[in-house]
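Summary of Year 1 activities. Much of the first year was spent building the evaluation harness for sequence design. The harness presents a backbone, in tokenized form, and records the residue chosen at every position. We chose the following record to illustrate the format because it has been used consistently in internal testing since the harness was completed.
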């Protein structure tokens, strides 16, 4: 390489001062750890916030325009189901019920639950069963329990376990597994739509959502327009997830608080690394002056400083990502409700911020180095 020699000198200057190098690494590692942890928590919360949309898996959702989250449904009139089914481009449309209830367990304790009522004929959106037979849901008083992080709150029921729900007898006939855990810390029970509305008191309207399967992707726009004429909205799965994400990001304190912590983490990392790198440059000015005296050009010194800052930043980035990954793995193994998850998005954001830290630190060092003159060093 053209600049391999000068880069090798920069590497030796950097790692030979173990104290300064360690301080730089600790500062950047700590900043990356905090940024990754905050954004991983936000990603985990969002993943659980739209867990209902993920678990049901419908391509389109019809709802009241005021709905912001999947768990806060506004009941829809019964005629809307027939109207949606008659829209051109709709292959099928089924009702979905979602509601909260209080169940009395076998030992006499009470536990809040979410009850999901699936269309009786198709059971569209049903979860995958670990135990039990899907046909048993058509028996009297039957429910599926979801084996997720909240499963133990139902006292780890088995097939055949009974409970009471609004003075109705309920029986667990299946243990199900879903793709994503819920956000509110409440166990989930699945049953048929008609049983759900019969067991749980509700308003005059009982449909929480209408799940739509379009005939083709080209039909989605037309379905949206026809539903809008009826006074309601139709979202694709991705659009509904984005609506939920926007709500938690901009209309609750979750997004603001996590963004603030991420910015603070960036400032901490920048201040530590910038100050330490500047101190490192000051302590090695004589060496940079000597390099200038023997013919090193300003461009070569710039490459050297950029290499030193980038090498330190990337090493700190790797250590920070590894540390937060280890912490999340340990926390998840011991705390089932722990929601943090690492995504490509927060990896990329942390990487961009680390590059920015490296760039600012380099700029501070470059300005100082380019101003020195060899005769000032030797005269001192």
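For this record, the design step produced the sequence shown next.
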């Amino acid at each position: 390489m053209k600049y391999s020699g000068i880069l090798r000198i920069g590497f030796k200057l950097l790692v030979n001062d173990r104290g300064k190098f360690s301080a730089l690494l600790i500062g950047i590692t700590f900043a990356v750890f905090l940024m990754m942890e905050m954004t991983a928590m936000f990603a985990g919360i969002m993943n659980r916030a739209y867990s209902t949309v993920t678990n049901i898996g419908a391509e389109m959702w019809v709802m009241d325009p005021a709905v912001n989250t999947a768990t806060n449904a506004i009941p829809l009139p019964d005629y809307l189901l027939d109207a949606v089914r008659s829209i051109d481009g709709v292959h099928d449309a089924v009702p979905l019920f979602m509601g909260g209830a209080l169940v009395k367990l076998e030992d006499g304790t009470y536990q809040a639950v979410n009850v999901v009522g699936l269309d009786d004929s198709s059971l569209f959106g049903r979860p995958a069963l670990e135990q039990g037979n899907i046909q048993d849901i058509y028996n009297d008083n039957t429910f599926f329990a979801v084996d997720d992080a909240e499963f133990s709150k139902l006292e780890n029921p088995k097939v055949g376990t009974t409970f009471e729900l609004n003075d109705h007898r309920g029986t667990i006939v299946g243990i199900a597994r879903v793709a994503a855990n819920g956000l509110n810390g409440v166990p989930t029970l699945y049953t048929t739509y008609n049983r759900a509305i019969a067991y749980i008191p509700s308003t005059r309207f009982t449909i929480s959502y209408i799940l739509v399967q379009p005939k083709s992707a080209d039909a989605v726009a037309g379905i949206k327009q026809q539903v809008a004429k009826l006074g309601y909205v139709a979202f694709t799965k991705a659009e509904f997830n984005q609506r939920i994400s926007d709500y938690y990001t901009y209309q609750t304190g979750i997004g603001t608080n996590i963004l603030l912590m991420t910015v603070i983490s960036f400032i901490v990392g920048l201040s530590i690394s910038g100050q330490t790198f500047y101190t490192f440059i000051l302590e090695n000015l004589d060496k940079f002056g000597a390099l200038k005296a023997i013919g090193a050009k300003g461009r070569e010194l710039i490459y050297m400083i950029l290499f030193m800052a980038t090498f330190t930043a990337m090493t700190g980035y790797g250590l920070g990502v590894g540390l937060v990954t280890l912490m999340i793995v340990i926390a998840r193994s011991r705390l089932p409700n722990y929601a943090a998850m690492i995504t490509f998005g927060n990896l990329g954001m942390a990487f961009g911020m680390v590059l920015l830290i490296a760039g600012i630190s380099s700029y501070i060092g470059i300005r100082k180095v380019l101003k020195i003159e060899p005769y000032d060093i030797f005269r001192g």
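The CA atoms of residues 33 and 322 lie 9 Å apart. Quantitative recovery figures across the full test set are reported in Table 2.
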